Structure formats: structure tokens, C-alpha cells
Task: structure prediction
Amino acid sequence: MSNKTILRYTANQRTNHWLVAILFICAALSGLALFHPALFWLSHLFGGGPWTRILHPFMGVLMFVFFLGLVISFWRANFFIANDRVWLRRIDRVMRNEEESVPPVGKYNAGQKLLFWTLLACMLVLLLSGLVIWRVYFSHYFGISSIRLASLLHALAAFVLVLCIIVHIYAGIWIKGSVSAMLHGWVSRAWARKHHELWYREVTRDETPASRVSKKG
Amino acid sequence: MASQDIIARSATTTPSPSVREQEQVAKLIDTTKCIGCKACQVACAEWNELRDEVGHNHGTYDNPADLSSETWTLMRFTEYENDAGNLEWLIRKDGCMHCDDPGCLKACPSPGAIIKHANGIVDFNQDHCIGCGYCITGCPFNIPRISQKDHKAYKCTLCSDRVAVGLEPACVKTCPTGAIVFGSKEDMKEHAAERIVDLQSRGFEHAGLYDPDGVGGTHVMYVLHHADKPSLYAGLPDQPVISPLVGLWKGVSKPLALLAMGAAVLAGFFHYVRIGPNRVEEDEHPSAPDTSVHEVDPAVHVYDPHKPGPQGDQRP
Result:
């Protein structure tokens, strides 16, 4: 019998997240193939150099579209609150697994919120700059200076995005229970209270025997 | 040309073959001798088996209107009114300049798609080209073009196939006025110097050689009547350099970025090794009774027979 009784992510949200994740892996690997010669071998995963060049922008655009789904689901839960500032100031304690004196946070902690907004910014820059350097369809609408700037911004935003995702994946490995929350949807009460106490209080606030678990976030 | 004479190769971080010494070649285009007959364009198309589509007249003598994947060289005509109020017809044969420090090669992400031969010729290897167009982004002279037929990049090869067997490029062979000459870069500079002395003696005080340092010099050079203002000649860059944006995009930032990504992964690994995972104690014993919270919630279909009925909400 499972003790995981709080629904953190609905099936649609989980599906959406993993679609973005799969598309990110594809777009990132194909992009890294063109990012540095040392990684050009990754282009073989996509059927060679020309196929990598053909597929990469489509995977990127699709990733952006699905990411918008995540934004619509989660943007409200990512507004900063007063506790977030304190949480960030005590990030060193969080990193050492010493959370006793760290203030309670909502559905997302300040780190997750920063990640959310950084991802959104990166995705926007990647989309816009990516269109400018999409040679087959769009580049002829732009001057050479715009194309050069877009190439640079695209690589820069991709670099920041990849770093963010490395942090994101590691956080999932580090904080036990968060990957299964995204895979199956449910978390235990203890997990919710330990990591997201304000959210836990919110979802259990009007809890009576007949009440429902709130999905509000 | 032999593979041991490929001295630079796109997207390659180790040294290319550099043992053999070869003489640097150059093509010298004397704009002051050019009559705009376009024989060089025809010779180029013939030798390289190129037949561009017939386009439209845009009100100038430029024909076709621009370089393309099937037009590797093009006469560009400029009507320039000089300070004395006289019309000068400036005609420049445009095409790849074969830079000593080629921006296309620097930008290309596909190993070996762009190569530089020991004699200075910069060549595209369409077999390795992936069609991304980064060479266009990197080129300071706006030369490479992507074909809409096969999505490969094309440009003047300086007839590397002819030069390899001791022939001059097709455009040189056909030029009726001797405005295009070909030989070792040293000889071409010498030849240009003589021409410049002659031009200066005839009133073109700013006559000079166009062999821009910003790209390490070029293996296609111009003699210009107005070497002080190259941009008069249909926008020939006054001081061409690989754009700083391209330098930043393709320069030291990439290995550093790669290093940072690797470091982030390692940092995560060692955080796990030193600090370890963050577990919720109760989760490790899911069957142990948890008295801190009540477990009965019809919405989530969990029923604990040990704790029947509602219990007080034990919010912290």
C-alpha cells in the first residue's frame, strides 16, 4: 500500500513535462553536435550531419510549443513570495540537506522558480534567434548582422538552458521523491511537508473527511 | 590536390598536415584593365559545368543580379561620379577572395566540409556539407550560397582542379585584356606594384593593391584605382575582418562553455558523493503507521484500516 496521498502533477501535466523533456534531449543533442567539433559525432544519432541540420529546428519549435503548455500550467505557482528571498539567502543550508532553519516554501522553492523563469527566457531567445538562423525558410528575411547576432544568442541561450537542465536533472536525483512525483504524480504527506510546507498546508487546509486533495498550485 | 596539402580543415581541433612547403598562389584582378565583357563569367560556367537560370534585368549591367550556387563569379558595375564631375565606370569581378584566415572555415560546424590547401586555395567539400549556412554567416565578403536544389554551399574554387595540374583558373585563361592574372602570390604582388606605379603616374594617385590584412591577406587580390575607398566598387569591404560576433560565437567561448557543462555534471556528482541524497524519513518505511497525519481521504482512495474515522488535522 502506498503512502503517497497527495497529487502533485496530473496525468496531463506529467505527459506534457515528459514530451518537453524528450524533445529537449533531441534538440540538445543535435544542437550540441553543431556546437563544438568534439561533439559532432552526436549527429550520427540523427542520421548524419544534414539530417541533424534538418531535424534540429523542428524539434526545437515543437519543444517550445509544448513548453508553453507547462508555462500555462505552472506560471501562477512561480511568482516569488517573501519567504523565497530568505530561502535563497540560506541556499547553502539547503545544499547541505540542513533544512531545519530554512523557511517553508510553496509548491515551488525559489530555485525552482528561478529555473522556471530562466527556462522561459532561454526558450524565447532560442525560438526567435533560431528562426533567424533557420536558413531554409527564414534567413533570407534578415540581414547578415542580425544572423550573426542570432547565431551568437542562440548558442548562448542554449548553453544557459543546458546548464539549467543539468541542475534540474541533478535536483531530481538529489531530492528523492521528486522524480516519482513527475512519473506517477503522487507524493507523500511527509514529502510535501518537508519540501513544500506552504503548499502542503494549502492542499490540506480545508481537509475534512469528505474533502478533496486540491490540485491547486 | 593531395590530401597532405590540406593545411586547414573546418571543425577540426588538431593540427592538419603541414610538413610540405608549397608556394602560395594568388589571382590578381586589375579593375583598371577590366572592360566588363563577362568572358570570365562564361568561362567559369563552362569549366565548372554550371548553367544558372536566366533571370531578369534589374536596370544594371549586372547579369545575373547576384552570385548564386550556380554563379560563382560575377561582374559588378558601379557608376561613380568623381570629384571632377566625371563619370567613372568601376567594374569589379566579384567572387570568393580565398582569405588566408577564412571566416567560412572558422564558422563551419562540419569536419572537413571546408578546407584550405597549402597553396592558399579555400575549397568547399560538398560531400561533407550539411547545408547549415554558417559559412555565409562567417564570410566577410558575402560569397557562399546555398543551393535550393541540394542544400549544399557553393562558391568559387579558384579552379583548384585546374591549379592542381598546373593550369591557371578558367577566368584567367579567358580574360581578353589580361586584367586577370594568376601565379605565385609574390609574383602577383610584384606585378600589381608595377601596375600601381603606372596608374599613379597617370593621375590615379590613390591607386593601390587590395590584399586586406584583416583576413590575413587574400589569395584573390584587386588592383583598384581608388584603393583608399574600396567600398566604391559595389560595396567591397573597406576593412574586412571576421565579424567580432562570429569570433565570439566560434572562438574561445565554445570550449569554455563545453567545460562549464562538464563541470556542472561533475559538481552534481560530487555533491551526491559528499552530501548525499535528500530523503524523507517516513518515505523509507511506507508501511509504518504515520500518526502525524490522518490517512483517510476518499478523493485519493487510500484507506488505512488501523485509523478509522476522521482525525484532527495536524498541520504544523
Remarks:
- Chain A has nine helices and two strands.
- Chain A has one domain: 9-164.
- The longest helix of chain A spans residues 144-174.
